[in-house]
């Protein structure tokens, strides 16, 4: 289907590429590439956020254990 569309649709001049001729196939390829790159960036951002939350959770657990230890020694 993409090959048929590429043959049927006319090429047009692109403003982005210095007036070069652009085909349907080039436009489709660029859109797919941008979508894939966006997915990778989103995955990287999600991993970064998860790492931040993991560190915060670990720190919170250590603080709670320290407070529990202080309370236990105070009440003993």
Description:
With 76 residues, the protein is mainly alpha-helical. It has one domain (2-75). It has two helices and two strands, in the order αββα. The protein has a two-stranded antiparallel ribbon.
SSE layout:
Layout: H1 2-8, E1 12-13, E2 21-22, H2 24-75
Antiparallel strand pairs: 1-2
Give the count of structural domains: 1
Question: In total, how many beta strands?
Answer: 2
Helical run tally? 2
The secondary-structure element order is HEEH
Q: Could you give the distance between the termini?
A: 78 Å
Structural class: mainly alpha
Mean pLDDT: 85
Summarize the main sheet.
2 strands, antiparallel
> pLDDT below 50 for ≥5 consecutive residues: which ranges?
none
Helical proportion, percent range: over 70%
Radius of gyration, CA atoms, in whole angstroms = 28 Å
Overall, the morphology is: rod-shaped
Strand content: 5-15%
**How are the strands of the largest sheet arranged?**
1-2
What are the key terms here?
Putative ovule protein, rod-shaped, two-stranded antiparallel ribbon, mainly alpha, 76 residues, 5% strand
Question: What is the structure about, briefly put?
Answer:
Helix content is 78%, strand content 5%. It is mostly helical.
